[in-house]
Design goal:
It is built from two helices and nine strands; from the N terminus they run ααβββββββββ. It is of the alpha+beta class. The chain has one domain: Immunoglobulin-like (Sandwich), CATH 2.60.40. The strands form two sheets. The chain has a five-stranded antiparallel sheet. A four-stranded antiparallel sheet has the order 5-4-8-9, with no helix packed on it.
Length: 159
């Protein structure tokens, strides 16, 4: 494991672990799932109990990806979620990273996307910078299994 990878794990583990399946202020989820699918997802440890709002489509490197934001509006120092739906199914072989802030990642925590097979998308949980940068965007990096990387961005939902 590379030194910076271990640092990411140490920094991100509390925020990833803090996003459990049961929230006292749970909101309904925008995906339609049957009870059977939800029980199956719970057995696999997937977390899709957040109020996700669409950020629309984003074109990056010839791909059109669908984006959504969970955990409400972005607030300084608060947890936010980016959901990235790729235009192809790869069973989690792609690596997706995301962050809130500027392209150069200054003062941003980078989250590693977790593949959710029941929805065929990637969930990225991050903590927003405090204070929020003036020209803040959601940034996402798609690293394909062949090592090629694509970088895209979208406007976050703010208070």
């Amino acid at each position: 494991m590379q030194p910076h990878s271990a640092l990411y794990l140490l920094v991100l583990a509390p925020w990833i672990a803090g996003c459990s399946r049961e929230h006292p202020d749970d909101h309904s989820h925008s995906h339609d799932t049957s009870t059977e699918e939800t029980e199956h997802a719970d057995e696999q440890g997937e977390d899709h109990e957040h109020d996700e709002r669409s950020l629309g489509m984003s074109s990056v490197g010839g791909l059109t990806v669908e984006l959504a934001q969970g955990h409400g509006n972005v607030v300084a120092g608060g947890e936010s979620q980016l959901v990235v739906k790729l235009p192809y199914t790869d069973q989690g072989a792609t690596t997706v990273r995301g962050w809130l802030g500027t392209e150069d990642r200054t003062l941003s925590l980078v989250g590693l996307g977790e593949y959710a097979p029941s929805h065929d998308d990637y969930d990225v949980h991050v903590t927003a910078p405090d204070p929020l940068p003036q020209s803040m965007l959601w940034w996402f990096e798609i690293e394909r299994p062949d090592g090629s990387k694509l970088l895209g961005s979208a406007s976050p939902l703010l208070e």
